[in-house]
């Protein structure tokens, strides 16, 4: 596309930018100044003003591509801020719920005792998974893998889910700042203030991330494991030991192991992992002789329901690509 | 060299140019082209996302100023940026030396494969 004036180029670029009003104005001013220099240079080389403008805008590059890069950086910044804030809020809500159970709760909880205890107990677990996925994709994976983030759209969706889930927790926390003890009150105030801040950044990340930037979260987890394995000698040994044992197990009992392979059989593997999670969560009680199997079943069903509802959103349900004809040739060769 | 490959190193290249002193976007792309002997002939707008990214990371600071009668945003390295530039330079030297050793070592003796 050719542009007849600097203004039309800058307008096109500004229209594509999703970086906030102040950021858009600053970029537009910088680009205008740069293009004015380029036009002056082209005119000094003997071009007419129209031809100089066309040459300058062509040299500057496609507005679509430049805007996409600005938008991606802006989405990443918002996603990182939201992920850190939400993770802190989840941790605070978790600790506050723990202290509330140990006597730190207000004498007359708002709106009532049942909701005061049930809301964090039910929702914080879901928020941990969603905020954790977002933190992995937007902060941990780019740091470990040393490259641009993969799955920014998935991170933005995870942030949105975590925010929606934490809003009732923030409302209940806000209603109990005054009545609770000093520690629980402080933690509640942090959650009540932090969730609205995280909501703003989550919405920004969701609006600015390119929809095509979704990725299989399990691929990112696998890449992170490999990157961690490469960091130290002991982790490399541990990684190769795990891979060897896993390969041996797959060779010996392929059918049994297929019940654990989330990438090949998502639902089957999710059922097994949910039961294991339920069992592990109730392990402290079981170690003291309290075999509460209905509680294990409830936790397992809750974990499986969480996978069914949020698995697709968090990029956990993508299967391994079926081998194509080239892969088959490679395997034979 | 493909433009995508250059883009992967753009932040480091920008930091390296800014080590020579504060400059604006137009001056930066000129310096990049001159210092590479015309090899890095990128679309000029591509330096701005890199500059904004580095500023957000605290490695670059910027401000408006009048240069040659025109209002321009001038970028300069911060202390963190200077450290990051040195780190990237060292990383690149180790990497390129290793690549050079591999390329320079030559391949195995070529043998004719009987068909």
TrEMBL record, chain A:
<feature type="transmembrane region" description="Helical">
    <location>
        <begin position="158"/>
        <end position="178"/>
    </location>
</feature>
<feature type="transmembrane region" description="Helical">
    <location>
        <begin position="121"/>
        <end position="146"/>
    </location>
</feature>
<feature type="transmembrane region" description="Helical">
    <location>
        <begin position="184"/>
        <end position="207"/>
    </location>
</feature>
<dbReference type="Pfam" id="PF22564">
    <property type="entry name" value="HAAS"/>
</dbReference>
<keyword id="KW-0812">Transmembrane</keyword>
<protein>
    <submittedName>
        <fullName>Uncharacterized protein</fullName>
    </submittedName>
</protein>
<dbReference type="InterPro" id="IPR047928">
    <property type="entry name" value="Perm_prefix_1"/>
</dbReference>
<feature type="transmembrane region" description="Helical">
    <location>
        <begin position="265"/>
        <end position="283"/>
    </location>
</feature>
<feature type="transmembrane region" description="Helical">
    <location>
        <begin position="295"/>
        <end position="316"/>
    </location>
</feature>
<feature type="transmembrane region" description="Helical">
    <location>
        <begin position="82"/>
        <end position="101"/>
    </location>
</feature>
<keyword id="KW-0472">Membrane</keyword>
<keyword id="KW-1133">Transmembrane helix</keyword>
TrEMBL record, chain B:
<dbReference type="InterPro" id="IPR036390">
    <property type="entry name" value="WH_DNA-bd_sf"/>
</dbReference>
<dbReference type="InterPro" id="IPR005149">
    <property type="entry name" value="Tscrpt_reg_PadR_N"/>
</dbReference>
<dbReference type="Pfam" id="PF03551">
    <property type="entry name" value="PadR"/>
</dbReference>
<dbReference type="InterPro" id="IPR036388">
    <property type="entry name" value="WH-like_DNA-bd_sf"/>
</dbReference>
<feature type="domain" description="Transcription regulator PadR N-terminal">
    <location>
        <begin position="14"/>
        <end position="86"/>
    </location>
</feature>
<protein>
    <submittedName>
        <fullName>Helix-turn-helix transcriptional regulator</fullName>
    </submittedName>
</protein>
